[in-house]
TrEMBL record:
It comes from Streptomyces paromomycinus (Streptomyces rimosus subsp. paromomycinus). Residues 122-244 form the CdaR GGDEF-like domain. Pfam families: GGDEF_2 (PF17853), HTH_30 (PF13556). This is PucR family transcriptional regulator. It comes from the Bacteria. Residues 294-349 form the PucR C-terminal helix-turn-helix domain. Belongs to the CdaR family.
Length: 363
């Protein structure tokens, strides 16, 4: 290691041993600057402390005050003054080293956050984005998919669940073509499609609770796409899946955008969907309890695979009450849930009602 980091150190020890003075502020500031330079050059603090201690040992016997000390008391005073100077010098050098490291960490975090924003929003030149991605372990020429986890509380980079998920995933899969980050209070994972188990593992780890903190409530996984634009597309699909799950009150903890492709199709013509809801389900508003309970019954029946006992359990009503509700649905709408085609119409209209917020919102 270059001796330039010891510049002025031997002179300082010699003067302290000779006069017993304390290190001056200018001397300590110079050592702090040397510490910053050493950190920027990539030298670790441990080896630098070893360098200072080794130099102290080498020159100890030649220091003026140590050499001329006559008695034990004088040697003790001189040695105490020199060791105090050694302590102050190493502390100042270490402070400069740590300051440079903190600055480097903040700069790295800022660069990473800027990259994540550009990656997920597609706001940067794709060629330049691909070059920056290499620095963070992604090769955008490959196909990737994005998973997004949301919980009852927002996730940030220091959240215990976020840190545990990153530790588990990187420990299992390494840091190539896997990026863990947070965005708008959600936990996000970008993974290469060839490692299909990465996003499945992410969904599992994200939903595990941490000490005193709940895990993610729901995870959505976008489809696989290629290139930087594909990452944006997959991310938007995952966000769309989370939004649909909220609107439709889906119970599944893990959603895949590929399984929900029918819903964007249904909503592509909102006017036609609104007309379907009004025509098929509008008469349910004539029921004594309003359309809500009967609409909920249609959803529970579909979710249970049209097994009446299971649907009743989900609704927390008796099978007899369920049967009564089904008769009311058939009477009011003219559609029979027992008929295959009419059942599909009821299900589609019920899904459309949830997506449009009916009956709480007028159509």
């Amino acid at each position: 290691m270059s001796p330039e980091y010891l510049e002025g150190y031997t002179t300082l020890l010699a003067e302290v041993s000779d006069t017993g003075r304390l290190p001056r502020r200018a001397e300590l500031d110079a050592l702090r600057e040397l510490g910053e330079q050493a950190a920027e050059s990539g030298h670790g603090l441990r080896e630098l402390v070893g360098l200072f201690l080794g130099e102290t040992r080498r020159v100890w016997g030649t220091l003026p005050g140590v050499a001329r000390a006559a008695g034990a008391a004088e040697r003790a005073r001189t040695g105490d003054a020199v060791l105090g100077a050694v302590d102050a010098a190493i502390a100042a050098f270490g402070e400069g080293h740590e300051r440079a490291q903190r600055l480097a960490v903040r700069q790295e975090e800022a660069a990473r956050r800027e990259f994540v924003d550009d990656l997920l929003y597609g706001r940067s030149d794709l060629g330049r984005l691909a070059e920056r991605a290499e620095r963070f372990g992604l090769r955008l020429a490959h196909e990737h998919a994005v998973a997004v986890a949301e919980g009852d509380e927002p996730f940030d980079d220091i959240h215990p669940v976020a840190r545990r998920v990153e530790r588990e995933l990187l420990g299992r899969f390494g840091d190539r073509d896997v990026l863990i980050t947070t965005k708008e209070g959600r936990l996000v994972c970008v993974g290469a499609s060839r490692e299909r188990t990465v996003l499945d593992a992410f969904a599992t780890y994200a939903r595990w609770p941490d000490v005193g903190r709940p895990g993610a409530r729901r995870v959505a996984i976008g489809r696989v796409h290629s290139g930087a634009g594909g990452v944006v597309h997959s991310y938007e699909e995952a966000l769309g899946a989370l939004e649909l799950a909220e609107q439709l009150e889906l119970d599944e903890p893990v959603l895949r955008a590929a399984d929900l492709l029918v819903f964007p199709v249904l909503l592509r013509d909102r006017a036609a969907m609104a007309d379907l809801v009004r025509t098929v389900l509008g008469p349910l508003t004539q029921s004594r309890g309003g359309a809500g309970p009967l609409l909920e019954t249609i959803g529970a029946l579909a979710a249970s695979g049209y097994v009446n006992a299971e649907a009743a359990r989900r609704l927390k009503v008796s099978v007899r009450t369920l049967s009564y509700r089904l008769e009311r649905i058939k009477f009011l709408t003219g559609y029979d849930p027992a008929d295959g085609l009419q059942r599909f119409t009821l299900e589609t209209a019920a899904m459309g009602a949830r997506l449009l917020g009916w009956p709480d919102k007028p159509l």
